[in-house]
């Protein structure tokens, strides 16, 4: 699945899912109302005797001052149900009864990995070296909070899929190196968009 398609699915779920209602279903003391802010106790950092989190209905997010974290519907499903980004989106799509997004022609085009390797001039690139470089770059974005949580999560998901593909020997290392370089370029583009 392409990055753009996953991003479109994530954005649609975040718009369609009422976070107040989702929180209420998880047992939090909130009232579903997109027009008001509400304090509530956050259990994601442990016992919370005082309401340390705030629901912002207007943008469908929360912020916990103890966790120091902004969360959206996808984040809650991931943390409460211990699933990855893609599974959280799938569960929310099913819960909301959302139909699958249509495929675009771009996503169905076959990819010629050999041509991409030549075009990117990485004949000597090592998968492990590229993996380490991209991992460090994504870690710096995560630490510095340069990008929003959804974008960071989707970049890390792609990173993990590439690493898993090579580790399971489903992909040759050259293809993995190309994919890591593309991911690095995508992450840099996202940073430029935010600045």
Task: Please tell me about this protein's structure.
- The protein is of the alpha+beta class.
- The protein has two domains: 10-96, Zinc finger, CHC2-typedomain (DNA Primase, Chain A, Alpha-Beta Complex); 112-194, no CATH class.
- 56% of the residues lie in helices and 8% in strands.
- The chain has eight helices and four strands.
- Strands 1-2-3-4 form a four-stranded antiparallel beta sheet.
- A hairpin with a 4-residue loop joins strand 2 (53-56) and strand 3 (61-64).
- The chain is globular, with a radius of gyration of 19 Å.
- The model is unreliable at 107-124 (pLDDT under 50).
Any descriptors?
195 residues; alpha+beta; DNA Primase, Chain A; 2 domains; 4-stranded antiparallel sheet; 56% helix; globular
The helicity comes to 55-70%
> What is the count of DSSP helices, taking H or I runs of 4+ residues?
8
Please identify the structural class as seen in this structure. alpha+beta
Q: Radius of gyration over alpha carbons?
A: 19 Å
Quaternary structure type: single chain
> Which shape, going by the Cα principal axes?
globular
Mean pLDDT metric: 81
The CATH class of the largest domain turns out to be Alpha Beta
CATH fold annotation of the largest domain:
DNA Primase, Chain A
How far the N terminus sits from the C terminus, by CA atoms, comes to 27 Å
Tell me the domain tally. 2
SSE string: HHEEEEHHHHHH
| Major beta-sheet overview | 4 strands, antiparallel
CATH superfamily of the largest domain: Zinc finger, CHC2-typedomain
Order of strands across the main sheet: 1-2-3-4
For the record, the CATH architecture of the largest domain stands as Alpha-Beta Complex
Which regions are unreliable across 5 or more consecutive residues at pLDDT < 50? Answer: 107-124
Strand fraction equals 5-15%
Number of distinct beta strands? 4
């Amino acid at each position: 699945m392409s990055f753009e398609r996953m991003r479109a699915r994530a954005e649609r779920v975040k718009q369609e899912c009422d976070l107040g209602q989702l929180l209420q279903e998880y047992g939090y003391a909130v009232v579903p109302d997109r027009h008001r802010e509400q304090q509530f106790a956050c259990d994601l950092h442990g016992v919370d005797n005082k309401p340390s989190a705030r629901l912002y209905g207007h943008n469908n997010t929360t912020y916990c001052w103890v966790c120091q974290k902004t969360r959206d519907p996808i984040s809650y499903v991931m943390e409460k149900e211990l699933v990855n980004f893609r599974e959280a989106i799938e569960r929310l799509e099913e819960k909301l009864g959302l139909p699958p997004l249509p495929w675009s022609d771009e996503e169905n085009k076959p990819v010629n990995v050999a041509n991409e390797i030549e075009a990117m001039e990485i004949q000597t690139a090592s998968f492990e070296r590229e993996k380490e470089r991209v991992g460090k770059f994504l870690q710096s974005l995560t630490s510095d909070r340069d990008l929003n949580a959804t974008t960071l999560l989707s970049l890390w998901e792609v990173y993990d899929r590439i690493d898993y593909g090579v580790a399971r020997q489903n992909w040759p290392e050259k293809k993995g190196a190309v994919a890591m370089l593309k991911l690095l370029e995508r992450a840099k583009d996202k940073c430029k968009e935010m600045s």
